[in-house]
Amino acid sequence: MKRILFFVILFSLVGCIDELNIKTERVLRVLVVEGNITTEPGPHYIRLSKSAKYGSIFEDFSKKLNGALVRIRDEKGNQVILDEVDSGVYATPPSFSAKVGSEYTLIVESNNEQYISTPEKVMPVAPIQSLRIESKKLASTSDVVFDIGVEVYAEFEDPGDEQNFYYFKNSGTYVVETNPELFEIVTPNGNVPAPKDCCARCWVNEEGGDPQIRIASDNLFDGNTTSQLAGFIKDDGKRYTDKYLVRVQQNSLTKEAFRFFQVLESQLSISGDLFDPPPATLRGNVINVIDPKSPVIGYFYASDVSTDSVFMDASLVTGSVAGFELNDDCRTLANSTDKRPFFW
Questions:
Q1: Which range marks the domain in which residue 319 is found?
Q2: Does 268 share its domain with 245?
Q3: Is residue 295 part of a domain?
Q4: Number of H helices, E strands in the chain
Q5: Which residue, of 96, 170, 209, 230, is most buried by count of CB atoms within 10 Å of its CB?
Q6: What average pLDDT does this structure show over 227-254?
Q7: Both 81 and 145 in a single domain?
Q8: Helices marked H in the chain — which ranges?
Q9: Closest listed residue to residue 336, CA positions, set 102, 180, 216, 185
Q10: DSSP symbol at 164
C-alpha cells in the first residue's frame, strides 16, 4: 500500500505553508487500485479505495471502497468473483491461480461506475537457482548515519532470444525477545508494576522488509546466468537479534507493467536534488468505462512466480543499531506468534 500512497500524494499534494482555502464546486475522488494475481495458489488480493476528496475544504485523505463487485476474467470468458474479506480488500478463492500464457482483466463495479483494466498476460519467469547474501552498509540522508543490513541477490538463467522483465518481492520471519515480567500499567499517580506470565519470545512475520521497488530488464544479460539485487533487509534493531529468514519472490512482468514500475521507481527516488529525474505522468492500466478521462491510480498485473528462501545470521550485520526493547507480551506486536514455526 505504500506504493499507492505515493500515487495519492501526487493527486492531493498541497505545497503551501499558509492555509489555502480551496473553493470549487467539483468534488473529485480517484479510484486507487492495488493488487495482482500470480501462478501461486490463492487467495490473491485486490485493495480498492478512493483518494482524497476536495470540495470547499479538504475533507479526508482516502476511503476504502466497500461493497464493490470485483471480478477477474480471462481471455476465454471464464471469470472469478472476489469476496470482500475486509474493508476495501477483495480476495479470490484459495483454489484460484493464474496460468502462464493466459490473459486476465480486472473489472470493478461500484455505485453505477465501472472500471476495467487492459488484459495482462502471464509471462513465464526464469526459476531462481540460488540466493546469495552480502553484508552491506549504505549511506542514508545523513553523512554520519548509515543503513546497515544484508543485500539478497537472486541468481538465475535468463531465457535467450526474448525480452524478459522481473519484479522482486520479499517477506521474512524473525525472532523478538521482550520483557513481559516488567510490564507496567500507567495510572494518574504513576506506573504500577503488573508483570505478565507470557510471552517473552515470539516470531514475527513481515511483508516487504525491503520497501524499495526492485525490478530488472534482461537488456544487459539476455540469455545469460545473472545475479540481480532482490532486496536489502535493513537492521532496524529487531530483525537481527537472532537470525532472519528471507523469502524472495521473483515475478514476471509484461513490458507495460515494467514501464509502469520503472516510472514509479524513478519518481520515488526524487529528493529535491538538482539531479533528480524530471516528474513524469504515472499511467496505470485501469480506466473508468463511463468517463475514460477520469484518472485511476494503480496497476493490475499478473505474474508467474519463482520463490526461494535463505536464513541470514545476525553475525552478517556489521555495525551497531540501537536494540529493541519492549516491556510487554511479545504477542502484542503485529503479525507475531509465540508458536515456533516448523521451519525454524
A1: 128-252+306-337
A2: no
A3: yes
A4: 2, 25
A5: 230
A6: 94
A7: no
A8: 2-12, 255-268
A9: 180
A10: -
Whether 344 is covered by a domain: the verdict is no
The packing angle between helices 2-12 and 255-268, to 10°, is 70
Task: Supply the pLDDT for residue 274.
Answer: 46
Residue 268 CB-half CA count within 13 A: 17
By DSSP bridging, strand 103-110 and strand 120-121 are: antiparallel
Pair (191, 322) in one structural domain: yes
Q: How confident is the model at residue 279 (pLDDT cuts 50, 70, 90)?
A: low
| CA–CA dist 29, 65 (Å, integer) | 11
Cell of 253: 512482468
Quote the radius of gyration of the chain (alpha carbons, Å).
Answer: 23
Could you tell me if residue 137 is inside a domain? yes
Q: Is pTM, for the whole model, over 0.90?
A: no
ω into residue 330 within 30 of 0, thus cis? no
How many angstroms separate the Cα of 52 from the Cα of each of 12, 61, 62, 322? 6, 4, 5, 37
- Asked if pLDDT for residue 7 goes beyond 50, the answer is no
26 pLDDT more than 90: no
Answer yes or no: do 22 and 165 share one domain.
no
Q: Does residue 119 carry a pLDDT above 80? A: yes
Residue 220 burial (CB count, 10 A): 9
Residues 116, 24 share a domain? yes
**Are 85 and 215 within one domain?**
no
Q: How many C-beta atoms surround the C-beta of residue 39 within 10 A?
A: 19
Is 343 part of a structural domain of the chain?
no
* Average pLDDT of the segment spanning 130-154: 84
Question: Partners of 38 in the beta sheet?
Answer: 303
CB atoms within 10 A of CB 320: 9
Q: What's the rounded Cα separation, in Å, for the pair 32 and 91?
A: 16
Q: How many domains does the chain divide into?
A: 2
The three cell numbers of residue 327 are 516491556
Listed in sequence order, the residues at least 6 apart from 274 whose beta carbon sits closer than 8 Å to its beta carbon are none
**Separation CA 195–CA 183 (nearest Å):** 5
Q: Contact, 148 vs 234, CB < 8 A?
A: yes
Are 199 and 320 in a shared domain? yes
Q: Are residues 329 and 224 in the same domain?
A: yes
